[in-house]
Design goal:
DNA ligase i, domain 1; six-stranded mixed β-sheet; D-amino Acid Aminotransferase, Chain A, domain 1; binds adenosine-5'-triphosphate; alpha+beta; 4 domains; single chain; eight-stranded mixed β-sheet; 21 strands
């Protein structure tokens, strides 16, 4: 497919923020694509619509091209001085928009004098796969002279692009391609465009939750149709989207789940999805990326103590003291990520694996089986040891029993508890935050009983002791329907000097000159950021507030708790959850 057609699609999508219009635009696009029979780049189109180069279950390749080099390429290409381009960039705040502006202006000037030749917008249009192979070449170009080589490749691409195409090309290269459509909207567009019926979105979404690679799902739908989509199953090597827990006031948990129900410790570690195929063990993070290399010790525990050939299990890995008697907080576990020699870290920071679910056993799917059956199967196949066991759980018949178990969980160093339904319909709901799992993390003395995860979108310079670092950050929550980050609160307390230093460095990579398009925020910070880094905060109470009118809620007395390295920006607390928290506090 021609990149030109995709650039036009992006441009149309960016021209509206109405979800229904976006669905229609996407649906028309997919319908035409289906009729054209041009299926070569289906998967790439899907990823690019998600604002990614590759599937979200794969590590994106590092193109390794600095903004300075892009400005140089643009300058050579357009004949406009780099200093002028930088000026425009500061005003526009986006490299793609800057390029489009410079090239369109240049084209206008040129056409006044020269009608015959137009090197800034010739008729040679790039194919999408040509861009991918150029990017692939850039990502493997290393060593001396590599900058020149990359510059050459980039200029080659630019020569074949119109101003509009250059806008999106540069955004792709700088990983800032976001056209503001959420994955749910893309799924709606696919349902309507390919099957002619929006109702099929439900099945396509279910398939996507079990196989969260939008490229594969799009290809399957277009090439094989709905029957294939309905057949999508959990499979080895492909992480499935995690089931998540909701919140309700603790007094209402028993009403929601019915009596009795099970309560489990909510461990303060990192979630792992474990895929065991014979002796091959793969571990996936909550963000669905493979992290087996970080936990060679966990792979060994699984290999030696899971008494079945093949299985997909879920559990939490937790830092332990050297005697395996005490669970240590998440902060200790997160030190592992910063160390290079993981083998030594296994001794320095030992971990334990606490299992809580099973999704597949050999070829038998467990996700549609009720929770008690899943837990029973898990008990049968695990050889419990200090370093690998099932998470502690208890059958609960009353709120008093629940509170007692909760206090015990907290005393043992857990975050709290997760209450789980044991009814017949208590299946594993992949990718869903429903009411079959309810979490309870006590934060005594506060109205707001739970913490909130916010993506950092802006910051204010610190003063006095905090000179040189940021003193206050703005945190935003996520709206999956609009794919936007809504400013929620300023956070100025709870930081240690070490964290402030660390964050200042970390956030440098995400600095932007203007408010990013996927951010709603009425505050004007000293520095804007692309929403990438997530932190956990607690607060006194969620209030209805006009501090951030777009969301309409804010947090009183927010206090930083920790950086959530295992969460991506889209895993931040959602706007709906904030409303729910507000109504239940
Ligand atoms: P949080 O911010 O509270 O960790 P989350 O957004 O990551 O939550 P939730 O649905 O709120 O996800 O809570 C589920 C998380 O709790 C899981 O991702 C997992 O890491 C962790 N967890 C700890 N113990 C358990 C357990 N016994 N069962 C399920 N999840 C558990």
């Amino acid at each position: 497919m021609k990149f030109k057609d995709l650039a036009e699609l992006f441009s149309k999508l960016e021209s509206t923020n109405k979800r229904l219009e976006m669905i229609e635009i996407l649906s028309n696009f997919f319908q035409n694509l289906k009729t054209s029979g041009e299926f070569d780049d289906l998967d790439k189109i899907a990823y690019l619509l998600q604002g990614q180069l590759v599937s979200n279950i794969k590590q994106a390749p590092k193109i390794g091209i600095a903004e300075k080099m892009i400005i140089e390429a643009l300058s050579l290409h357009s004949g406009v001085e780099s200093s002028k381009i930088k000026e425009v960039l500061i005003k526009k705040g986006d490299i793609g928009v800057t390029a489009e502006y410079i090239l369109s202006k240049k084209k206008k000037q040129k056409s006044l004098f020269d009608f015959s030749e137009n090197s800034l917008n010739n008729n040679v249009s790039l194919d999408i796969h040509e861009i991918y192979s150029a990017l692939q070449r850039m990502s493997i170009t290393e060593g001396s002279g590599s900058n020149d080589k990359k510059l050459g490749i980039l200029r080659g691409l630019m020569r074949k692009c119109s101003a509009l195409e250059t806008k999106y090309l540069l955004r792709i290269i700088t990983s800032t391609l976001r056209v503001g459509v959420s994955t749910l909207t893309i799924l709606d567009g696919l349902a309507l465009g390919i099957t002619g019926d929006k109702i099929n979105r439900e099945y396509i979404e279910k398939a996507y939750n079990l196989h969260p690679d939008l490229g594969d799902i799009t290809r399957m739908l277009v090439e094989e149709g709905m029957d294939a989509i309905k057949q999508v199953k959990v499979s080895y090597g492909i992480p499935i989207k995690s089931m998540l827990a909701s919140r309700v006031p603790y007094g209402e948990i028993i009403e929601k789940l019915g009596s009795p129900f099970k309560a489990e410790y909510k461990l303060d570690g990192e979630r792992l999805q474990i895929h065991k195929r014979g002796n091959k063990i793969k571990l996936f993070s909550r963000r669905l990326l493979e992290i087996s290399d970080q936990y060679p010790d966990v792979c060994k525990f699984v290999k030696n103590n899971v008494k079945t050939e093949n299985a997909i299990l879920e559990g939490e890995v937790v830092a332990m003291d050297v005697f395996y008697e005490k669970m240590l907080p998440f902060q200790v576990l997160s030190r592992r990520r910063r160390k290079y020699d993981v083998k030594d870290v296994s001794k320095e920071i030992p971990v334990g694996l606490f299992l809580f679910d099973i999704l597949l056993l050999d070829n038998e799917s467990y996700i549609d089986k009720p929770f008690p059956l899943r837990r029973k199967k898990l008990e049968e196949i695990i050889n419990e040891k200090d370093e690998i066991k099932l998470v502690e759980s208890k059958l609960i018949h009353s709120t008093e029993e629940l509170l007692e178990f909760f206090q015990k969980a907290r005393k043992k160093g857990n975050e709290g508890i997760i209450a789980k339904s044991i009814k017949e319909d208590a299946v594993y709901q992949a990718g869903n935050r429903g009411f079959l799992w309810i979490k309870m993390k006590g934060l005594e003395g506060r109205k707001l009983k739970d913490s909130v995860d916010v993506a950092l979108i802006g910051a204010f310079h610190g003063r006095g002791r905090r000179k040189g670092v940021y003193g206050t950050y703005i945190g935003a929550v996520y709206d999956p329907l609009t794919d936007k980050f809504e400013a929620f609160t300023r956070v100025a307390s709870g930081w240690t000097d070490e964290i402030m230093e660390f964050l200042k460095k970390e956030m440098e990579q995400h600095e932007v000159d203007k408010k990013p398009k996927n951010v709603s925020c009425e505050d004007i910070p000293d520095q804007w950021f692309h929403p990438k880094v997530v932190i956990e905060i607690i607060g006194d109470e969620i209030t209805i507030s006009d501090k951030f009118p777009s969301l309409g809620y804010s947090l009183r007395f927010p206090v930083f708790q920790r950086i959530r390295t295992e969460k991506g920006p889209k895993d931040a607390t959602t706007t709906d959850e904030i409303k729910q928290l507000h109504s239940t506090q």
